[in-house]
Amino acid sequence: MTRRKDDLRAEKLTLLKEHAQVTATTTIKLYKVPTGRSFRLTGAQYVNVTGLANDATNAFAGTIQNAATVAALLFNTDSGDADVKAIAADTLVIADLSATEASRCFAAGDTISLVLTEDGTATLPAGTVVLEGLLF
Predict the structure, then answer these.
(1) Which of 72, 117, 126, 134 is least enclosed by beta carbons within 10 angstroms?
(2) Shortest CA distance to 17 belongs to which of 39, 42, 46, 38?
(3) Strand, coil or helix: 59
(4) Rounded distance, CA 114 to CA 64, Å?
(5) Does residue 1 surpass a pLDDT of 80?
(6) What is the pLDDT of residues 15-32, one digit of tens each?
(7) DSSP category for residue 6
(8) Taking the model in full, what pTM does it have?
(9) What's the distance, Cα to Cα, between the start and end of the chain in Å?
């Protein structure tokens, strides 16, 4: 990512959130950008001690979103999708950030969410997401 002159005035922010086992599509609110501030997502990671195997019919996808806008793809265990990204047991998964910078920027009052989307009857074991970014 290109460094900007405003980056020197920004605060680095790291957010860590654990989630319980998930058996249905779920949205977990991670952070609400404070009034008068903005946030730019610079990285995201996911770890799941148990992991989840790829499967064409029973899978989960994990994304970081601002409402319906996807800022990052953490994982997608649907082996039938083009963007399949497995969850190996006890291994950090580095997110694919959106190529569109505007999708990674959150305005004051925006809520950053972890969206876990189920396909079929999969069960996603408990895991942890880590977000990194700049708060302006």
Answers:
(1) 126
(2) 46
(3) strand
(4) 5
(5) no
(6) 999 999 999 999 999 999
(7) G
(8) 0.91
(9) 16
Q: How far apart are CA 112 and CA 28, in angstroms?
A: 9
- Residue 13's closest CA among 128, 133, 136? 133
b/e code 29-50 from CB counts within 10 Å (16+ = b)? ebbebeeeebbbbbebbbbbee
Q: In the numeric block, which tokens belong to residue 23? A: 């058996």
Longest dimension (CA), the chain: 48
pLDDT at 37 over 80: yes
| 59 neighbors 53 (Cβ within 8 angstroms) | no
Task: Scan for tokens 């942890």, then name that residue.
Answer: 128
Token output for 86: 């497995």
| Strand ranges, E, within the chain | 11-19, 26-32, 39-47, 59-66, 69-76, 93-94, 96-97, 105-106, 111-119, 127-135
